[in-house]
Amino acid sequence: MQSDALDVGQRAALQRLQRAQRAEARRIRQAVADGYALTPAQLRCPRRPALLAEARQVAMWLMRTRVRWPLPARTIDIPCERIGHLLGGRDHSTVMHGVAVIAARLASGREEDASLRQMVRALAATLDATYEAEGRPRRRAA
Q1: In a domain, 141, yes or no
Q2: Closest CA to 87 of 107, 109, 67, 103
Q3: For a Cys staple, 86 with which of 25, 100, 102, 116, CB 3.0–4.6 Å?
Q4: CA nearest 98: which of 58, 39, 128?
Q5: Tens-digit pLDDT string for the chain (142 aa)
């Protein structure tokens, strides 16, 4: 057996982590789709009209800022590659760009971004309510 290979316990833990990440990503995709009056399948499709692109970027930002999983020695963020995979096979650089765009728009204070800030607050509140109903600690968006 190679020294860098995962043992059975580590492999099982990694599989549990990946299942939890997929479930969390589905929850975020559904919340974003509902907020933008889209379907989750539309968030994963290859089309790029402005509304779909914005909704997809919001989903990327929420996944990147809210999905974290504790490991014994540290807490890890969901990788950009994984977010891209969960949103229709996008590249990690696409995810990094989408997260940066939404973060900049949220921090801008511009009037035209007010509806985006309101949408993100509403989505975060929806996710927090779901977490509380499940008895999980909620994550605050950055």
Answers
A1: no
A2: 67
A3: 25
A4: 58
A5: 444 567 888 888 878 877 877 888 888 999 999 999 999 999 999 888 999 999 999 999 998 888 766 555 566 677 899 899 989 899 999 999 999 999 999 998 888 888 899 988 888 888 878 777 776 655 554 4
